[in-house]
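Running co-folding for fe (ii) ion.
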Amino acid sequence: MRSSLKNLKIEDQIARAWTLPSNLYSDPEAYAAEKETIFARTWQVVGHHDQVKNAGDYFTTELIGEPLVVVRGADGKLRAFYNVCRHRAGPAAEGCGSRKLFRCGYHGWTYDLDGSLISATEIEGVEGFHAEDFALAPVRVEEWFNFVFVNLDREARALNECLGELPEQVKKFPFAGMKLFERRTYDMKCNWKTYVDNYLEGYHLPSVHPGLNRELDYNAYTIEPHAEYVRQFSPIRGAQPGDATPRRYQEAGEDLTTDYFWMFPNWMLNCYPDNISLNIVLPLSAERSLAIFEWYLPEKDHGSAAARASVEFSHQIQIEDVAICETVQKNLHSRSYSRGRFSVKQEQGVHAFHRMYAEAMSQG
Ligand code: FES
Ligand SMILES: [Fe+2]
């Protein structure tokens, strides 16, 4: 499998291209290779700014099974480490909160917030032991907007280089002033790529999301693939003559759009005029994934019925997406199916993803 992954090619002309082979959506070896080649080498969202706002604030998390701790040092600098004690691999930090130092939960070695070992209890008499050789192993960490990113690849390019024009394009939405309103998780019986494929096209809107389709102008839905991300956007439909029920954005004018950004490999920003949601798709196994949804709204709107309605509206869309993804996941196993073709008009995003995936895996 590893050698066939290295030779995986997706035709660059969408009109001639075929989709990824279906076995890549369930093969445990492909999944293991993806963890190393894709998830251990890309910038991953692990938290948000508010969790590490002040000196001493920290949180622990996991990324592809690696325990991590992110902490704001006494000097104000944000750092991340493998949350693995250098003695016998105990937990250097637990949970989240604020502290002056970390004390390992196994034998009590203490670490400074900058990762250096302060004291190793009862280590007297150990030959050649130098505390400076036993600092917590560092991990790359950066912030953009409200989010904290880590990258397990020490050699990775800087985050803003990877983001390309995305920050500029997101600017028209008032994200900076928004605060986390709600977080939900969805355990899904599908491969992470099944979910990403589905995210990257609006082709399924009329069949799968009639409610959302009513709010958007399907015929004007545009897909804009970039080097490492895809932007999809659509004008929002305001009130129409003959409407039986009101639309969500009654007053929509020409320039009101909804923009969906997906960044390779697994996170998305859904930008609506009144709220922005972040989605992260975490692979749990070859055929299970966790979708994390976070809704951000201006703080003044947090108590409003409209805020609730926004969350319920995208929750409903998510339920529809999970259902179709789980069915597709099951069907990808069918002996009748191995690969498909792309709609040139509607599936440029999926095609771009499959190209990025093949490119990344060939470098594995
Ligand atoms: S494993 Fe951390 S002090 Fe022993
Ligand atoms: Fe969908």
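Result summary
The longest strand covers residues 178-188.
Residues 85, 87-90, 104, 106-109 surround FE2/S2 (inorganic) cluster (ligand 1) (CB under 6 Å).
Job closed.
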